[in-house]
Amino acid sequence: MEAFALLLAATLNAGTVLALAALGLLINERAGVVNLGAEGMMLVAAVIGFATAVNTGSDTLAFVAGAAAGGVLAAAFGVLAIYLNTNQVATGLALSLFGVGFSAFIGQPFVQAKLGERPRFEIPVLADIPFVGPAFFKQHPMVYLAILLTIGLGWFLYRSRAGLVLRAVGESPESAHALGYPVRRIRMAAVILGGALCGVSGAYISTVYTPLWVEGMIAGKGWIALALTTFATWRPARVLLGAYLFGGVTMLQFHLQGEGVQIPSQLLTALPYLATIVVLVLISRNATWIRVNMPASLGKPFFPGS
User: Between 8 and which of 89, 135, 138, 212 could a Cys-Cys bridge form, CB atoms 3.0 to 4.6 Å apart?
Assistant: First the structure.
């Protein structure tokens, strides 16, 4: 039972990484913009967040720096894809490739750097409950913030006027423009906010999840987060559940290795990506279901004068 509690705790930790990035991408896509640059944004944010934590000793400043880095890269993407009407897919891929190279370049001085002693968090009284305490109440505050963010985003999208406008922009930007809403500015704001959340996720990886910096340490998590938005049919609560599912698969490989299960380590390492492919294949079999839930103008450019 103790081992299972630790597995649950690790699942929440790993799922938070994916949830933060996927919720950011969900905001983008609800506004009708596809940003494939999550991997690159997370990498740049990871190295900048780590460098900030090394030089200041503050994880909070590291998260702020990571969010700023992700937001700046997302803004560059937004200028190209939203205002200059470049192809969103090609621009996102270029951003991802840029992030991989740029993070490796600026991260060279920090490869051997180490952070100070990591703080330990727990909720008093609740953390002492057998099994439940170690599993759920000894987490980093960002784990609980991700849950609150999911609830808040669900309320925003389905219960607020601003959320309704955002969804309208993703469904029919022409109609929203005809009603007087600044479609491009709304999309730009959504893209920057989404990039900032990807940046927080990247900084969380390098300062909390695996407190170090190595080249390419995101290791495909940005792509999994992107797949999660489709897996969750663009709904925040499903994004969080999907993030925990994939986080559990990721942690399961380490648990099985620790238990001495005789399975090739390469296969265990591939489990999260195999799970991603299987889920996407299963979802794609029902094209009507995807079409009903997907924002109608997803990936389509908007020309105000047309």
Answer: 135
